[in-house]
Amino acid sequence: MNANQNELITRVGPNTACGNLLRRYWQPAALVDEFNERFDPRQKNRPLKAVRLFGQDMVLFRTDNGGWGMLDSDCAHRGADLAFARYEGDGIRCPFHGWKFSSTGQCLDTPAEPLGSQLCHRVKQRSYPVVEQSGVIFVWMGPEHETPPPLPALDCFKAPSSHSFAFKGLWNANWLQAFEVGIDPAHPSFLHRFLNDENLSNIGNNDAGKQFRSASAGDVHGEQWPMTKIMREFYRPEINFLPKPYGMEIHSIRHMTEELTHVRVTQSIFPATFVIPLSETMTITQMHVPVDDENTYWYSFFTSFSTPLNKEAMREQRLQFISLPDYKPKSGRHNAWGFNPDEQSGKTYLGMGEEDINVHDQWAVESMGSIQNRTREHLGTSDKLIMANRRVLLQAIESLATGGQIPGIANPDVAQSRIGPDTVDGIAPSGTWSEWWPKQVTLKQSQAPWYKDTLNEAVS
Q1: Residues 230 and 127 in one domain
Q2: 418 has which bridge partners?
Q3: pLDDT tens, residue by residue, 101-119
Q4: Cα distance between residue 168 and residue 249, in whole Å
């Protein structure tokens, strides 16, 4: 990849080619939890916060009727920062001259103007469509004259609140390298390698960062194998992918014996979401939204296909590693991501902890630099998925620039179709693994008390 291409696919600020593309897709803007005074006392009487996405500064606030408003932060009057606005329930008021704006951006009051002035009727602050879904507030930042597509019909959005939990974290690096680490099927055998296995009975369904400590679906001669053993011993996966209307379905095949094959099916949803199995009955849907060119928030949706989730426990486990109210990781470049050479020699391949594998990915993402220099790469066969995704991204940028259609869930027809998407992680009969894994998906879905209701549900 040459330097110009690398610039093209990483820069996301206003009026950049890639930024213009990504703004056509719904993006997570904040957790609903961020407006809970329990997690941020500043929200008690003023449910308003500054939000920076794609290098733009905005304000997000909850209205007194339970709705949401998201506006550019520079006041339409003379540009003062609305992050310091007075909150008034039905809108926000700029402290500079008292101009008030509704959640739609309409100017409601210009108190310093003469009586009878009609100025406020002619002024509108730029606002953005927002929707609350599954514990997250989403924003669409495309052109004002365009209609946003519906939110995609993802399982993580269809599951009831009792079976869904959302969390987030900040990484100090570009959005694309964060996403590329996530969709890479080869890295778990190395980056997340544990040198020893743990008793599977000690692993809780809600444990933070332990998807590679749990059991793989299926068994070997009646015995379940931990994912740690499979990833450690079968480190050369056969990687293939199928193009889908929403992105790519990824098959990572690890041939164990003549009779048995480990099958891991994950999904890439263009432009910046992946879906992976956490366990036999839970998936993670992870989205990546640029704060700016050099910082990215990841949002993870945990979806249970069996029992309700213990959200309090899941939140507390993750808050061991993340600081509120800005969801910044406690480990990072400042403390070498917690690197311990003794651990590296005897416990983990990386040496950065056993409890939270998020920091493993964080190191991989951030250690490349704020914006990875892809001109210095030497890609191999195991990187075929990375290369394919970059081709789609470059093509999408070109299509938008020339007035063509952009791919995936920006297309209303794609977004409204049942996407799922389906994942599995398990041990299958070698000759029939391709027939085995859809049956495992069906079994998982049949266990979900909520799932059957989604199949015939009209997409709103």
Answers
A1: no
A2: 153
A3: 999 999 999 999 999 999 9
A4: 24
